[in-house]
Amino acid sequence: MTSEVSDDDFQQILAQTRHFVRTAVVPREQEILAADRVPDDLREQAKQMGLFGYAIPQAWGGLGLNLAQDVELAMELGYTSLALRSMFGTNNGIAGQVLVGFGTDEQKAQWLEPMASGLVASFALTESGAGSNPSGLRTKAVRDGSDWIVNGQKRFITNAPVADLFIVFARTRPADDDGAGIAVFLVPADAAGVAVGAKDAKMGQEGAWTSDVSFDDVRIPDGALIGGTEDVGYRAAMVSLARGRVHIAALAVGIAQRALDESVAYAATATQGGTPIGNFQLVQAMLADQQTGVLAGRALVRDTARLWVSGEDRRIAPSAAKLYCTEMAGKVADLAVQVHGGSGYMREVPVERIYRDVRLLRLYEGTSEIQRLIIGSNLVRAAQK
Ligand SMILES: Cc1cc2nc3c(=O)[nH]c(=O)nc-3n(C[C@H](O)[C@H](O)[C@H](O)COP(=O)(O)OP(=O)(O)OC[C@H]3O[C@@H](n4cnc5c(N)ncnc54)[C@H](O)[C@@H]3O)c2cc1C
After folding, report:
1. Is 364 touching ligand 1 by the criterion CB < 6 Å?
2. Fewest beta carbons less than 10 Å away: which of 59, 169, 275, 296?
């Protein structure tokens, strides 16, 4: 897990990303919001910069960043509409890491390089009744000669409307003493029997798309079984989600920093009765709480990424970071609206979008309740050993 990218090279990637976010994307946030779409030229620029494969190893055409570098990048990407990051979030995160960590060399060679240059992969785990607890999933894969036949229905799948590839979790047998009975498959979006539903109408993150995906007697070859064994599916999902939680925590810090910057700029200039509102101590208290949350979140994310890279903690710290940072971003965004007064409730003001965008961070890749359960149960289990 050491990085393939030197510090110097990484600093350049980071500076380029920061420049792209702040000069090319921030000025177009309202356009993204109004059109519910990231403009094609920004998508193209992100591809050219390697952002569709920044966490994919260099051997397969990616930039090869490790998680400690990933979180620095995520803090920059979080500074604008979260839809930007979402375009390539599944490639580098939940979907891509299943292939990177668990795919065979053949599977990696076939899919990772195209993904690094812009092919979109989606992670299809969630179903109705199987979200927080994926072991309840009902999508089935049944052997038929040397093929598999997949049937089932997934929901809320990020990037499904534009996906070329689905990483699909399906039950191959009931859970037993040997494991959860969940395998994971590579299913091309154009395979016969794959149907992508209409785009979901969401609360926020305009420009980031999700939809249902159904699999109706989809026939895929044996080589599409990730890792070549039925037994990696559940573990692949858990490891990929744990890693993703550190990234989401970093994203939360990035957007909280933006909410803070917007709040400070507004407080310093907007006046009431001729006095800048930032001169009122109760407004300063709100800024202080925002700043404290951002600083604490950033330190926690960096420490958590370090523990992941060294292998010291890949269970408790990722959940603690996601729990703290996403809740913190929610509070910071709420305070940002408060600092802006009535203006903060208006569509054209960035903090209104941020308030809606951050709400999702406490839900996906494990709700805050699920993070608490992971942290608490692991602490008790360790003590009982
Ligand atoms: C915009 C968006 C994008 C998404 N993208 C993807 C994607 O790309 N791929 C994918 O597979 N999924 C995706 N998801 C699904 C997401 O991960 C789930 O929605 C999430 O994990 C919660 O599952 P659920 O919706 O079934 O809610 P539930 O699990 O039904 O949760 C409802 C409530 O019950 C609580 N709860 C559930 N179980 C417990 C428990 N054991 N103890 C205490 N409380 C509990 C939850 O914390 C929550 O408060 C996405 C969701 C959204 C909204």
Report:
1. yes
2. 275
Beta bridge partners of 215: 152, 194
CB of 161 within 6 A of ligand 1: the answer is no
* pLDDT tens column, 116-153: 999 999 999 999 999 999 989 999 999 999 999 999 99
Buried b or exposed e, range 225-256, using 16+ CB within 10 angstroms:
bbbeebebbbbbbbbbbbbbbbbbbbbbbbbb
Q: Tokens 């590579």 correspond to what residue?
A: 186
Indicate which residue of 31, 352, 365, 369 is catalytic: 365
Burial 280-289 (b: 16+ CB within 10 A, else e): eeebeebbee
Architecture in CATH for domain 7-117: Orthogonal Bundle (1.10)
Q: Indicate if 230 belongs to the active site.
A: no
User: Which pTM was predicted?
Assistant: 0.97
Q: Which of the following CATH numbers is that of domain 121-230: 3.40.50.10300, 1.10.3720.10, 2.40.110.10, 3.30.1440.10?
A: 2.40.110.10
Contact between 151 and 139 (Cβ < 8 Å): yes
Spatial distance between the Cα atoms of 27 and 57, rounded to a whole number of angstroms: 32
Q: How far is the CA of 19 from the centre of ligand 1 (A)?
A: 34
How many whole angstroms from 134 Cα to the centroid of ligand 1? Answer: 9
DSSP 183: E
- Ligand 1 centroid vs 129 CA: distance in angstroms? 9
Domain boundaries, the chain: 7-117, 121-230, 234-384
The two tokens of residue 99 are: 């292939």
> CATH number of the domain at 234-384, please?
1.20.140.10
- How many CB atoms are located within 10 Å of the residue 142 CB? 14
| 95/116 Cα distance (integer angstroms) | 12
The finding on whether 124 has its CB within 6 A of some atom of ligand 1 is: yes
Beta bridge partners of 169: 184
Task: Give the amino acid at 214.
Answer: S
Q: How do residues 80-96 score in pLDDT, each as one tens digit?
A: 999 999 999 999 999 99
Burial of 219 (0-12, 13-18, 19+ CB in 10 A): middle
